[in-house]
Give the backbone structure.
Amino acid sequence: MAQQLPDPAASAERLHAAVGAIRQEIARVVVGQHAFIDRVLVALLTSNHALIEGVPGLAKTLTVSTLAAAVDCTFTRIQFTPDLLPADVTGTLVFNPRDGEFHVRTGPIFANVVLADEINRAPAKVQSALLEAMQERQVSIGGESRPLPAPFLVLATQNPIEQEGTYPLPEAQLDRFMLKILVGYSSREEERAILAQSLDGPVPEITPVVSLTELSRLQDAVRRVEVNDRLREYIVRLVEATREPARYQMASLTPLIEYGASPRAAVFLARGAQAYAFVQRRSYVMPDDVKALAPDVLRHRLVLTYEAEAQAITAEQIVTRLLEGVGIP
């Protein structure tokens, strides 16, 4: 009897259903914030890092911890403070008087999902240790490199209001974040639902709906999402326009941008568009997917000039003008 081959359509439907199950499980705890949740899912499905910015009380920490619980990942939260040391993040060697030897005590960075809370409060030494973990997916303890678990992603938060006692993140570290997600206030209806959830009963417990093995399959499926040649050219043009806007009839932006996005931005934009399309239950990328994620990928990679700051022009406004000026080939 001939062996029946698996149905690709049915397999894709199961994978899309798994993403839907994650979103549904998160929605049991987090009210609204659909755009934020979709972008955190993009980071998870590509195993990349994201910087999350928003005022306190917008469920940033709750969303990240709920996501980790829904996919059965190990999760740690590191509260960044000015007195934090690199060893507090990565771990260190501890002397055992019983056997007279040093033993490795791993730090909280050894988890699948790491929440770096208020990341901009830590000094440069901590940021350099975190940068190695983010880029190399390993840490150095006692002269030895130790690999981090897979998947590994850092979801870092920062408060845009309070700047006292904070350190600006170096550009090299910002470039390692695939996305910078801006979290806004909930709508009136969502805020009423949040209030009802708080007053009328306990927060429901999250149960894992996707295992690490299934998550690996989802990540493999995201890599197979089609990005055609026209969209690849569009992504390259968008990133190139951040460096040479005059080539795209936007010479007025030239004095506003000191440094544009690196080639890593093009890679992240393409990979992010793949994951965003997959979250929307599609096996191919559309121009709208690229446009939806372009602000999140580019906003923290543009270094603006003093002239832009003097005119109160933001990176957000420049990205909007780039999207308007760069056509789809």
About this structure: The chain has two domains: 8-218, 225-325.
